[in-house]
Amino acid sequence: MRAFRYERARDPRAAVAALTATDGARYLGGGTNLVDLMKLGVEHPGLLVDVSGLPHGSVEPTPPGGLLIGAAVRNSDLAADQVVRDRYPVLSQALLSGASPQLRNAATIGGNLLQRTRCLYFQDVAKPCNKRLPGSGCPAREGVHRDLAVLGSSEHCVATHPSDMAVALAALDARVHVLGAAGPRTLAIDELYRLPGDRPDLDTVLEHGDLITHVELPEVPEARRSAYRKVRDRASYSFALVSVAAALQVAEGRVRRVRLAFGGVAHKPWRARIAERRLLGGPAGEPEFVAALDAELARAEPLRDNAFKVPMLRHVAVRVLAGLAAGRPGTAARPNGDGEDR
Fold it and tell me: Does pTM surpass 0.70?
């Protein structure tokens, strides 16, 4: 690891000023991803600005009936929050399915949103990677890509976004509060992330110096009946091959409200809006769920070794929707243990 300077931010604006003034500087929250990347030589910031002590460590109700979550809140604390467990179980389950208990105790909400891909080529500085070094190539397309994207990729990058939490936040239409050099602004989470295109090195639309301060959840009545399901290679600790975040409200056998997002299959959390439109107002039955998923996944462009993700994702999403329609949202999230997918 190369030498670097360390500063502990006194307040949010001082943090933004310090980072904006230094090329290549990085914010440090829990450090669970950034420090790993520094050890691998992927990241080598000259300055770390520690934002873990800023006043962004609480979960508060908002007047419209939602929640305002500080960026410094720990993943484990948010998963255990009783309001989140009762009103947004999909979010609690997603948090508990990510990483290990030790990592969840250290990782922050802001850092979780901005973690980098786990593509092997991105993490190995001896190999080309357009995400790490634009223009150097993407050997993953013809190489090891079993875990990589089947939706929204480009010839320049087939990496996937690793966060479980962000998939649940995408389904919930969360908004991200950002403080930048020009002042505060708010982004829909769908606006925060970008597809790779010809600039896969850019994961988000954030500018250098932008600091995520909060995540805002709107009131989502149908989220009380919601679930997160993750399929991975090992139960204890692994990133998603595919994952599904869903909320469903059914009245008189027909879909009244539905939310659906996928993880492990694209450069960003993938909101399945085509499937949602197909389902809305129609019968809440398994044939309709399959048809809606087929319509969404018609855009999939799998590579040689990851075509299995398409039927796997269809199956998982149909099972989750069928469970919600039948009033079986899934195993309750457990704050001190692993997620529901053992």
Answer: yes
